[in-house]
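Each field is set out underneath.
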Amino acid sequence: MLLLDLNALIALGYPRHPDNHKTEAWVASLPAEVKLLTCSITEIGFLRVSLQTKLAADIIEARAVLAGLLRSRRFPLVADDLGAKQLPAYATGAKQITDAHLLALAKRHGAKLATLDTGIPGAELIS
């Protein structure tokens, strides 16, 4: 099982994203039994980034893109009941907090965090 972080989810959702082809190829290379997961943070982040970066014209379009992606890939939504005290020790700066939380959440669910970000220790790098 692999929990996709926000950058991976965005790359999969938008064909014009610069990492779309790499991420699509990586997903296609996974064994059929590997489940891809999502969570509330990545889904909400998908909507936020879609609007901020103008990948989607409005919230209606962003929700439609996300719904289509989740339907086509059949992503189970994992529950998130981790608080700040469960953050891994490597999270010492503001830019690491969400990634560290997602890393801990993936571990909690017996999964690995899948990302395009090279700076997350213990995560599976999409290449």
User: Anything to note?
Assistant: The mean pLDDT is 93. The chain has one domain: 2-125. Residues 13 and 68 are 8 Å apart (CA to CA). The first helix runs from residue 6 to 13.
